[in-house]
Design a protein that fits this description.
The protein has 414 residues and is an alpha/beta fold. It folds into two domains: 16-150, Rossmann fold; 161-308 and 337-413, Dihydrodipicolinate Reductase, domain 2 (2-Layer Sandwich). The protein has twelve helices and 20 strands. The strands form four sheets. Strands 7, 10, 11, 12, 13, 14, 15, 16, 17 and 20 form a ten-stranded mixed sheet that branches. A six-stranded parallel sheet has the order 3-2-1-4-5-6, with helices on both faces. Helix 3 runs parallel beside helix 4. The two termini are 30 Å apart. The model is unreliable at 2-12 and 17-24 (pLDDT under 50).
């Protein structure tokens, strides 16, 4: 979806079909819906792929006109997807990078064509919409890639190998830690920002579902929790320091069907932004994966090693899947586990307001940002102890009975 959260980038090759000398390939006809916010990342990436002769960006759609010069002169410009589909036949791939609440209708419209779909994260704003979209994808035979870019990291294969080899002993738990800063202006950038719903439509914007959604998705992937059948339970402990509806400081505790705990402690109310990371807690060591940097640090009794890995681009992977039969990195069905987390947040009580005596404001005007006092230590304790803020007894946290909610959807689907 369109969001000003930093794009996750690394140098990636064009799809394999374009890199095989002497093999004739036709450029894949692509349309992009949403050219602002995170859509600008897609525009840059499509420019790279177009220069490589892999794609032809034939059309874009956005109710707000593109920035001059951001779209190739050869691409047609439309106000919406309906107009785009009426005026642009024979599309191969449609990329949707629009606000969360529009993903379901736009995704369904795209799946009614002959094109494959790239849908930005989070996939949709409710589990019911996810089920509908998944059924439509399966019925149409179209492929759907969900935009969790971190899942393209080659470090994930290395992590899978070190777990299988027992490098850090028996895996006992996984945690995700996110400490970012977002100013008041972040919540003024659009009508849906910081909303749980808008005009009666689910939005489910929040720290775990939007800016730090990759932390949750990456932790789930490492834990082997991909589909809805892989999750036993989800508990939420949601708070807000900003004057918004959604959560900006939260703990999400997940348990897989194998019993492995995953604890995500996340905030956009830190004193400074730090690269988020996922920690594997083993009986004989730890592995820490800084997923925005593709950097993996492994610590055991034998010492510490660190390595930075490459990354596959999800758009290129979808094209390879379409043209060469490559396996999709982030297929829609494997976002099921993440959607159980989103649904738990959607159906939880409204986030608890953190008292002003526990919040410090830094900066001026719209650039001012909230800092929850002691949040760094709170995140560290939560991930180490696999505990919610309420269980830790933090002074600004609600009582456990008022704050923690166990989502029953995973139980119902088992």
């Amino acid at each position: 979806m369109g969001t000003p959260a930093p794009a996750i980038q690394s140098a990636v090759p064009a799809p394999s079909a374009a890199s095989q000398p002497g093999k004739p390939t036709a450029a894949v006809r692509v349309a992009l819906v949403g050219v602002h916010g995170f859509g600008t990342h897609h525009l840059r990436n499509l420019e790279r792929l177009q220069e490589a002769g892999v794609v032809d960006l034939v059309a874009v759609a956005d109710p707000q006109p593109p920035t001059p010069g951001s779209v190739p002169d050869t691409a047609a410009i439309f106000a919406g997807l309906t107009e785009l589909l009426a005026g642009t036949p024979d599309l191969d791939v449609i990329i949707v990078a629009t606000p969360i609440q529009t993903h379901a209708p736009l995704g369904l419209a795209a799946l009614a064509t002959a094109a494959d779909l790239y849908l930005e994260k989070p996939p949709v704003a409710s589990l019911a919409d996810f089920d509908t979209l998944l059924e439509a994808a399966q019925a149409s035979g179209r492929s759907v890639q969900i935009g969790f870019q971190s899942l393209g990291s080659h470090a994930l294969a290395a992590i899978e190998e070190l777990v299988a080899n027992g490098t850090i002993g028996t895996l006992q738990g996984i945690s995700a830690t996110g400490r970012w800063v977002r100013p008041r202006a972040y919540f003024k950038r659009s009508r849906w920002a910081g909303k749980r719903s808008l005009d009666g439509v689910n939005v489910v914007d929040g720290v775990a579902t939007n800016p730090l959604a990759h932390a949750v998705a990456t932790a789930l992937r490492i834990a082997g929790a991909r589909t809805t059948a892989d999750v036993r339970s989800v508990e939420t402990d949601l708070y807000r320091a900003n004057d918004i509806e959604s959560d900006d400081t939260s703990v999400i505790r997940i348990r897989t069907t194998t019993g492995l705990p995953i604890t995500c402690a996340l905030t956009i109310c830190a004193s400074e932004s730090v690269e988020p990371y996922v920690t594997l807690q083993g009986s004989a060591g730890t592995a820490i994966f800084h997923y925005t940097e593709d950097r993996l640090t492994v610590t055991t009794a034998n010492g510490q090693t660190e390595q930075t890995y490459g990354r596959d681009d999800l758009t290129a992977n979808l094209i390879d899947h379409r043209t060469e039969g490559a396996e999709l990195i982030s297929p829609i069905v494997e976002s099921g586990a993440f959607m159980l987390v989103l649904e738990a947040i959607r159906t939880a009580p409204s986030p608890v307001r953190i008292g002003p005596e526990y919040v410090r404001w830094e900066g001026d005007g719209d650039e001012a940002h909230a800092v929850v006092l002691g949040i760094e230590e709170a995140l560290e304790r939560a991930t180490q102890e696999h505990a919610t803020f309420s269980e830790l007894g933090l002074p600004w946290a609600a009582s456990r009975s008022a704050a923690d909610e166990r989502h029953p959807a995973a139980e119902r689907r088992r």
